[in-house]
Amino acid sequence: MIGIPRRYSHFVYGIIQSGLTSAVAAAVASAPFYKEGIFWSYWLQASLLAWFVMLPVVLFAAPAIRRLTEMLTLKD
């Protein structure tokens, strides 16, 4: 394991979640380029751009979303 302290788990989660979401969204958006043979280059460029845009959004929005989720759900 890398050994990142647990207090930084919010950031690790945000990096992984935003990267995965951006990669999937870019793949869907790049699908029309598959037949042209430029899918991978287009997907990589779109995925990296989306990741750099989404990472701060996820890191700053996650605490608010977590609080909203707790307000909208009942405790077991």
TrEMBL record:
Q: What is this protein called?
A: DUF2798 domain-containing protein
User: Could you list the residue ranges that cross the membrane?
Assistant: 12-34, 40-65
State one Pfam family annotation.
DUF2798
Q: Which InterPro entries match?
A: DUF2798
Has UniProt tagged this entry with the keyword Membrane? yes
Q: Which UniProt keywords apply?
A: Membrane, Transmembrane, Transmembrane helix
